[in-house]
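Onboarding guide, step 5: your first structure request.
Type a short instruction followed by the sequence, for example:

Predict the 3D structure of this protein.
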Amino acid sequence: MTKAATSERAGGASDLKKPWREFLRSHKLNDSRTRETVVDVFLGVSKHVDLQQLYALARRQDPGVGFATVYRTMKLLEEAGLAHVRHFGDQKGALYEVAAGRSHHDHLICERCGDIVEFVSDKVEQLQEQIARQHGFVLSRHRHELYGTCRRCAAAAR
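The system replies with structure tokens like these:
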């Protein structure tokens, strides 16, 4: 994760609890201790996590957290707009990242080790707008996922 993205997240977890609580209220959902543990753990991670990783992290905080609670809570966080689910390449499962309180970013994905690097490039953003205009498109959203080999894996292969 970039330094900018990390500093953007500092203090962001508590800021995101307000829209979460509003979502629960508006959907008439209960605020359970185990659900809150999952939310707190997820909002505190600085990388992409799968359900199993999130489950393990949440169980460290509260051994009473069940996998079903993690699964259902992540679906709710997605619905609330606080989590994005990502499917990178041939990866078998979904990865989740905190959606709210973060600026747009793109991803570099290592096809060997699965490492994910987030990046922001004004040049890429400007170029895609230019290309869209040339083809008569008005962009509403996009997602860049660039696949290759990270520095560490490339060095190990030599």
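Each response can be followed by summary notes, for example: The chain has seven helices and five strands.
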